[in-house]
Design brief:
By secondary structure, this protein is α/β, with parallel strands linked by helices. 32% of the residues lie in helices and 23% in strands. The radius of gyration is 18 Å and the shape is globular.
Length: 230
């Protein structure tokens, strides 16, 4: 079976809004509702685990018009990866097996497509340990050691900018979290980082420009323009 874990524990300080960015309403619905609807409407997703502060549970449910019977909640952790760990443990608590697939997504990426989700699931069925969508880097990219001058130039042909969702087998991915110390877990920045550092084979699939993360006010304006008639 397949489980979606939607991460909604962030506070979105760069947005400068009165509430976390994933709960900002656009067209009278919170940003998180778009990704919930996409995952909950799929027949191959058995459960949607939303990692969110308990104070937002009623609000999320009140704005979820599709697949409410699939939705359950887990408490967020200190960091994004700790929140993922909480979602994984919730999946085990619900009785899912080690071989089931978890598809981990950011609530602030509302325009995820079924094509990306399909490929995330298919990649694991092909035998990969994980799957991550990514975009090719278009701009010339430099490294600066002092923040002022150029230290070296990177080959952009080899660079990719990661997106979510990212997919893994529940049991093996959970084990990665249980084998490292809390100190190490707190230093993990991306879902795939912990798998890569453990030597897992992660497939990169094509991401999509529309699958951007709403982080700044400019991102929010871009999103509003894309969903003006939705």
């Amino acid at each position: 079976m397949n489980i979606a874990i939607i991460l909604s524990g962030g506070i979105g300080t760069r947005m400068g809004a009165d509430c976390p960015k994933q709960y900002i309403e656009v067209n009278k619905r919170p940003i998180i509702s778009w990704s919930i609807e996409t995952f909950a409407s799929r027949e191959d997703i058995a459960k949607v685990i939303i990692v969110a502060d308990k104070n937002w549970v009623s609000y999320i449910l009140n704005h979820s018009t599709m697949g409410r019977e699939k939705i359950c909640f887990a408490q967020p952790g200190e960091t994004r990866q700790c929140s993922i760990y909480s979602g994984l443990r919730k999946a085990i608590e619900l009785g899912f097996s080690n071989e089931d697939i978890v598809v981990i997504h950011d609530a602030a990426r509302p325009l995820v497509t079924n094509r990306i989700i399909n490929e995330c699931i298919r990649g694991l069925e092909e035998g990969y340990d994980g799957v991550m969508p990514a975009l090719k880097v278009k701009d010339t990219t430099y490294v600066t050691e002092d923040g002022i001058t150029i230290s070296c130039l990177l080959d952009r042909g080899k660079l990719r900018a990661g997106q979510s969702p990212e997919s893994f087998r529940l049991g093996s991915y959970l084990m990665l979290h249980e084998k490292i110390s809390r100190h190490e877990l707190l230093k993990i920045n991306g879902s795939t980082e912990i798998a890569f550092k453990a030597g897992k084979m992660v497939k990169i699939i094509d991401g999509e420009e529309s699958n951007f993360k709403i982080t700044t006010p400019e991102d929010l304006v871009r999103f509003k323009l894309l969903v003006v008639d939705k």
